[in-house]
């Protein structure tokens, strides 16, 4: 976008997210209604909440997390989880890498992990790779981003939103964007709470945003929200 994006344009970049462990089916139903009302690109939920009922005619995709939030699942478990989620209606999978493997410099293992999920859920399923950028140094961010490119992912994503080290930063988003060089999308998630936050992330190179408080961010009437949302 060459001009400052409007709230409506930003909404179309948002994965409207509810990943709290205490989330109920009623909370997720409210999340879907809110996503339709706000015009967000998708909803992002835990795999146990599938299948979702999207209102007929609504342009809302279903994104589901995988290996979440630690990434410390085996590749076979991640692949199976992703495959089952797609069979239950997921359009997109947001998988967490083995962050310890990245910290150890085992980038071939990171690539193999991503590739296992990619092979389990081939296109047109969209695969996003969560790298937990706040835990990684710049060289590690570049290396795991390159691994995601090599493994055939569609996006790299900054954060789960659960790690105490923090969420998305402009620096990480810019570094990821420069590394993918247009070959993959970049999703900024974790701590994107205001229009200014969203615009800064988009200016840094984000092409998707993970947001739990979408109504507050977009400046819409928060009284219409009927369920707690959050990450």
Automatic annotation (TrEMBL):
Pathway(s) per entry: Carbohydrate degradation; 2-deoxy-D-ribose 1-phosphate degradation; D-glyceraldehyde 3-phosphate and acetaldehyde from 2-deoxy-alpha-D-ribose 1-phosphate: step 2/2
Gene: deoC
Function, as annotated: Catalyzes a reversible aldol reaction between acetaldehyde and D-glyceraldehyde 3-phosphate to generate 2-deoxy-D-ribose 5-phosphate.
The entry's keywords: Cytoplasm, Lyase, Schiff base
Annotated localization: Cytoplasm
Descriptive protein name: Deoxyribose-phosphate aldolase
CDD domains found in the cross-reference section: DeoC
UniProt cross-references to SMART domains, sorted A to Z: DeoC
Main localization, broad class: cytoplasm
Active site: 94, 157, 187
Reactions it catalyzes: 2-deoxy-D-ribose 5-phosphate = D-glyceraldehyde 3-phosphate + acetaldehyde
InterPro entries recorded: Aldolase_TIM (IPR013785), DeoC (IPR011343), DeoC/FbaB/LacD_aldolase (IPR002915), DeoC_typeI (IPR028581)
E.C. no: 4.1.2.4
Family: Belongs to the DeoC/FbaB aldolase family. DeoC type 1 subfamily.
Organism annotation: Frondihabitans peucedani
């Amino acid at each position: 976008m060459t001009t400052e994006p409007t709230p409506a344009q930003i909404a179309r970049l948002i994965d409207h997210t509810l990943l709290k462990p205490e989330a109920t089916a009623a909370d997720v139903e409210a999340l879907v209604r809110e996503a339709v009302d706000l015009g967000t690109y998708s909803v992002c939920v835990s795999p146990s909440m599938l299948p979702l009922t999207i209102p007929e005619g609504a342009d809302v995709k279903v994104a589901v997390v995988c290996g979440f939030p630690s990434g410390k699942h085996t590749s076979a478990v991640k692949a199976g989880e992703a495959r089952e989620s797609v069979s239950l209606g997921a359009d997109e999978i947001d998988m967490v890498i083995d962050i310890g493997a990245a910290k150890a410099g085992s980038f071939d293992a990171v690539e193999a992990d991503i590739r296992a999920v990619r092979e389990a859920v081939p296109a047109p399923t969209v695969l996003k790779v969560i790298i937990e950028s706040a835990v990684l140094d710049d060289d590690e961010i570049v290396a795991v981003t390159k691994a995601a490119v090599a493994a055939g992912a569609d996006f790299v994503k900054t954060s789960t939103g659960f790690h105490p080290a923090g969420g998305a930063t402009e620096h990480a988003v810019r570094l990821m964007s420069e590394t993918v060089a247009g070959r993959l999308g970049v999703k900024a998630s974790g701590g994107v709470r205001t229009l200014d936050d969203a615009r800064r992330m988009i200016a840094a190179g984000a092409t998707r945003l993970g947001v739990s408080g979408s109504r507050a961010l977009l400046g819409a009437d928060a009284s219409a929200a009927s369920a707690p949302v959050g990450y």
